[in-house]
Structures are given as structure tokens and as C-alpha cells.
Specification:
mainly alpha; about 280 residues; Pentatricopeptide repeat-containing protein; Serine Threonine Protein Phosphatase 5, Tetratricopeptide repeat; repeat; E_motif
Length: about 280
């Protein structure tokens, strides 16, 4: 391939940024700037670069991009400002995220979702809930990402009934809960001691539960020393990820907390044997 045009750079950086390879996206962005190429980044490329910074939690480089945008006279439109809202929110600077959010000409689901998630992971659960209600009152329909954020908020805050009501409202907005949404709800219910309901929710899933869902139940069983459901969850986890020793370890801890010492010892012996085999293989 000869000299790359702006479209080629954009496509490659977007490909990396959108497929969980943010380091490569930023490496390509830097290559574009520093190697005397004949084209310069446009607003779309800057947006991808800021997204990569958000994924990495690299506030320092994100700040540099914002300063550079101002320096070269690129207008901070709603698209770029929303990307920066996401960056600041994820990196813990909620005040700056709000400043940019309030400056948006039109607040859309992407902007609200970014701020909701940021508030949630930074201990501002009730602020995140307020934003979610504000968004729905404004007739802005939440998407799957919004629900991941707000359900995570309810999970962190331990608000079981509110979280379950929110989860149930997904279908009202034309959304089918994903396995990730189910996983969050399973842990929320399980952590509150409602393990049977959490297991029932798994059995009601319209898709095959993934290891994240069963792992959520296993963690909750560890919290409450529930051997019966812990064994079921661990069995599924081990079947899906047989090379991981963590599930056996969690089940051994459940046995120990229930004073089933022989079972705990047996599992730990199995772990040691597997470790020795992996070491010498």
C-alpha cells in the first residue's frame, strides 16, 4: 500500500479503538502526527484517540489532546466534547465532566450514558440515578450501554428492588437484556442473600449463561457460604473455563466456611496437582 490518505488512517485507528486495542490506536495516532505524513488528524481521528485514552484511563494524554485541539483551532463540537465527558468521568474528574456536559448544545444518550457510568464508578450512585431519571423524563431513550452503567450503579449501592425494577424496564425501551446485564443482576440479588432468586433468574435467561453470569453467582455463594448453589455455579464455570483454578479455589473457600474440611482439602489438593502439571508441561 502506498501513501496512506486520511480515510486509511481513520479506518485503522477506529479499528483498534473499537476492538479493545487502545494502545495500538494511540501508537498509530502518534505515528500519524510525528512522521511527517502528508495528512493531519481530523475531528473523527481525535475522537477515536480520546476514546482510546478513556479505555486506558490515560487522563494525561487525553488532556494533551484537548490542549492540542485548542492550539490548532479545532472547534470542540458536541461529538468531541462528549468523548471528553467520557474520559473525564471515567478518570474521576466528575466536575470537569459536568462542565463539558452542561456545555453541550444537545445532550444525547451517549453523553448521558458516559456521565451515568462515570458517576457510578466514582461513588456517586444517587447522582447517576438522578441523571438516568432526567434522561428518561427528557424522552431520551436509554440504550444497552446506559443500562450497563445504571445497573452497575444499583449493584454498587446495593439497591436491590430499584435495580430489579430498572432491569425489568429494559423491554419497555425495546431492549433485550444481554448476558452482561443478567450477570450484574445475579450478583446484585446474590450479594443481598437472595441466592435462590438469582439462580432462578439464570434459569430464565433466553440465552446460554456465560461464565460471567455463573461466576457472579459463585462469588455471591462465597459471601453467604451457600454450598449447594456454589457447587452448581462452580461446575458450570469449570466446564466453560477448565484451565482456570480460581473457581476451584472459591468453591474450596465455600466448603471451608461451611466446615466441610475434607471437601476443601480435596479441592486444594487438586489445585496443587494441576499447578505442578502446568509448571512442568
Amino acid at each position: 500500500m502506498g501513501e496512506k490518505d486520511l480515510l486509511s488512517w481513520n479506518a485503522m485507528i477506529a479499528c483498534y479503538a473499537q476492538n479493545s486495542r487502545p494502545k495500538e490506536a494511540l501508537q498509530l495516532f502518534n505515528l500519524m502526527r510525528n512522521h511527517n505524513v502528508s495528512v493531519q488528524p481530523d475531528e473523527m481521528i481525535f475522537d477515536r484517540a480520546i476514546s482510546a485514552c478513556s479505555q486506558l484511563g490515560d487522563l494525561k494524554f487525553g488532556l494533551w489532546i484537548e490542549t492540542y485541539l485548542s492550539k490548532i483551532g479545532v472547534e470542540l463540537d458536541d461529538h468531541l466534547a462528549t468523548a471528553l465527558v467520557d474520559l473525564y468521568a471515567k478518570c474521576g474528574n466528575i466536575e470537569k465532566a459536568y462542565e463539558l456536559f452542561h456545555g453541550l448544545k444537545k445532550k444525547d444518550v451517549v453523553a448521558y450514558s458516559a456521565l451515568i457510568f462515570g458517576c457510578g464508578i466514582n461513588g456517586k450512585a444517587f447522582e447517576a440515578i438522578r441523571l438516568f431519571r432526567e434522561m428518561t423524563t427528557a424522552k431520551i431513550r436509554p440504550n444497552s450501554i446506559t443500562y450497563t452503567g445504571i445497573l452497575t450503579v444499583y449493584n454498587h449501592a446495593g439497591l436491590v428492588e430499584e435495580g430489579y425494577k430498572c432491569f425489568s424496564s429494559m423491554t419497555e425501551h425495546g431492549l433485550m437484556p444481554s448476558a452482561d446485564h443478567y450477570g450484574i443482576m445475579v450478583y446484585l440479588l446474590g450479594r443481598a442473600g437472595r441466592l435462590d432468586k438469582a439462580h432462578g433468574l439464570i434459569k430464565s435467561m433466553p440465552m446460554r449463561p456465560n461464565v460471567g453470569v455463573w461466576g457472579a453467582l459463585l462469588l455471591a455463594c462465597r459471601l453467604h457460604s451457600n454450598v449447594e448453589l456454589g457447587e452448581i455455579a462452580a461446575q458450570h464455570c469449570i466446564e466453560m473455563e477448565p484451565d482456570s483454578s480460581g473457581y476451584c479455589s472459591l468453591l474450596a473457600n465455600i466448603y471451608a466456611s461451611a466446615e466441610r474440611w475434607d471437601d476443601a482439602k480435596r479441592l486444594r489438593k487438586m489445585e496443587e496437582t494441576k499447578f505442578d502439571q502446568d509448571t512442568w508441561s
